[in-house]
Task: structure prediction
Amino acid sequence: MATKRRTTILVVLGLAAAILVAIWKPTVLIYGVQQAGLYAAIAIPMGLVLGIVHIVNLAHGEFMMIAAYATYFACRATGMDPLIAVLPAAAVTAAFGWVVYKLTIRRALKAPELNQLILTFGLGIMFSQLVNLFFTSQTRKISLDYVSASVTIGETSFGVWQFVFVAVAAAMAYGLKLFLTRTTLGKAALAVGQNPKGAAIVGIDVDRTYGIVFAIAAALVGGMGALFLTRSAIFPAVGSPFTMKSFSLVAMAGIGNIPGILGSAILLGIAESLLRAFRATRGWADIVFFVLIIAVILGRTLKWRKS
Amino acid sequence: MNRNLLRALAFAAGALAVSLPAFAGAYPLQVARNVIMYMALALTWDMLLRSGQISFGIAGLFGLGAYATALGVLRAGMGDWLSLAFAPVFAGAAALLIGFLILRLRAMYFSIVTLALAEIFRIVIHNLHDFTGGPEGVVLDGVMLGGSAAALYWLTLGGLAVALGASWWFEKSKFHFALTAIRNNETAARSSGVDIFRWLLATFVITSAIQGLLGGIYVQSYGFATPDSVFDANFTLLPLAIALLGGIHSTIGPVFGAILLGLSSEWLKLRLPYGHLVVYGVIIVVVILFMPQGLYGLARKGLRRAEGRAE
Result:
């Protein structure tokens, strides 16, 4: 009950803030929501892995970066549009994620939690440096016409393409909810996430489930990599900021709460875009996530101590 | 094992390190300075790790120390040596404040918060344009000690001596027992009368102060600081890989790890203009998966087996 009441309060506060911002500076709200969609769509797969495999994947952003590079070269070679490449990129990254899981993560599952953290940290460095090694740190971009589509309402005009990220994030959250509650595999994954030993006793292959969940998360973030390519230039370090931002969102929503990621992303996206709107505060926009993550973690520990 | 032999070896290595400028040219000396810097950072990271806490914030405290020295000279008119002394004091004080808040966190929460703090320091320094020079950073009037390569090498070596001394003291004093007890089982440690929070705070402040001192030495020996150069993620990544490869929870592990990795990465840097850091990622992954005790752990195991056979 307590959590429900808290969520309601948060939602009401968020809505009130959003309406205020919308009246005062509509573009801040619009870009904030678009940015939030991007953050949420990248954070949701991380939330899935953290909720079920119980691993903080510090190489999360690098998976997206690798998918974006693969898409870039495929598109360059064939003249294909990155949008068409979303599904193939997802499939390839899923296979890649599965292999990474089998070769590395699986071996560290029994080790202390901190070993897993260092392991994925090392994997992230390895991925970004491998890309750096083969393709140098040069930025790469595919220019597309439809990305700059804009709409003018009254006196404000804004780009609309990035609303696609909001749609993708919402679809991901809803799709995962259906997957976890309606399909056998999803139910099994949920059970493994709650209690791996108990799940193993009732006959669920825990290792296989972990592998599949990891692959699904890789697929989602891989598809996002292809989609990301429509929006931004890419370079080897493009993914790593998203790892921290995703973790902030997941930690704020609470582990295992996937729709919550959407909510916290909107709050932070708007806060960031608000800071970015003024010249004096523009440089501080990046700090929002880091302050938040520390506040949330400290707040949670204080609460644990009380109870 | 033979204690006297070990002591003689350590003494010879020390003598070699001190007398290096007598016969090494400018380039080897520069490489040696890098190796020493990362060796010292790896030692401080390992010292905190002995209590079971993984910090991803080395670069943050290193950068704080660097800016404390640079701004001490430029804004407060400190002399070179005073500014060097100010760096560990500032970083240590910052660590004391932060430690009160975050040392109640455990495991991944502690690690992630240290990572976030390092980013916050960088962003704050980046944005206080008038005071810190913003993204362009600050430039000192000159390099310390007249820019003599040998003197700067000895200065860096002095930083390493502080780290080595602290690490050795940690191994020989009550710190060793307290930190090991905390790492193994906090409940058992607490019931044996170990004041966990105070030991962790002391360790965090000491290691952070040394990291700050090294940052100060870095600034004084290159004459400038920018947010991107002193808060570089490499100052977190390399010490981590070095300590893991050499062998954690020991003084000797990071020392050998730094020599091995420092020289090999220097060699790689000449061959691969981009991405030579990949070797650090590979080493972290391989060590965690196949030899979590590092090379020192492997060597110890091998020695024990050899001794067992001899008996």
Chain A has one domain: 2-306. The radius of gyration of chain A is 20 Å.
